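Let's practice the habit of predicting before peeking. Look at the sequence and jot down your guess about where helices and strands might fall. Then scroll down.
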Amino acid sequence: MMPFKKWFGSKAQNDEWIERIDADNIPNHVAVIMDGNGRWAQKRGLPRIAGHHSGMKNVKKITMAANSIGVKVLTLYAFSTENWKRPKEEVEYLMKLPLEFFPKEIDELIANNVQIRMTGWQEGLPNYTLDAIQKAIEQTKDNTGLILNFALNYGSRKEMLSGVKKLTEDVVSGRISLDEVDESKFGQYLLTHPLPDPDLLIRTSGELRISNFMMWQLAYSELWFTDLCWPEFSESHFYEAIQEYQRRARRYGGL
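Done guessing? Here is the structure:
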């Protein structure tokens, strides 16, 4: 567990961190569990939704930080299949954030060649949420840079069960043979296909669990935890996580 650190984020500090990063060892796919928005707000005597609003503003900063060092995919866990259990007012506020985020930030995302994607189930999402996301996806579909992938209404257990059912149907129908079924084939039935598995998972707020997030895909990912809540997680903290990733030896079960 990382100790709590002071707020980083000045251009000079970011440049110092970037200089220490090995440009030849950048993770292709970084996934982030953006946790702690509500707690960050409550510690400051603010309503939980204020934390979500601050967290939303942090999305662009970390997206640009990832883009600046050559990360290919940045997946942000925005809303889980379990988050529907939260208070109705909070859920409604979260569902409206894409309506504020995309119109405000889309021009800069396009200018930086960022492509928007979504991983999750559309069923159950309000039409206005889907419309905002689909418009952003359409506007950025021809971009060839960083893929900014929002995991929205996503849950890994549901994803794997759905994949097993579809795979079973294809085997039973004869579309594929049982001998064809291996890890690679099963991966094609997951919502994240054809994105690569994450090389690095970052979780903010001090929680030490993956919370039903990409359980298949994270099998050999490097995990990095911080006590910082998402609204206070700066570009320099992101670069620090990348540096820690680069210090690790990824053996995939070997020596």
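How did you do? The helical segments are 11-19, 37-43, 48-69, 88-111, 127-140, 156-173, 183-187, 235-247.
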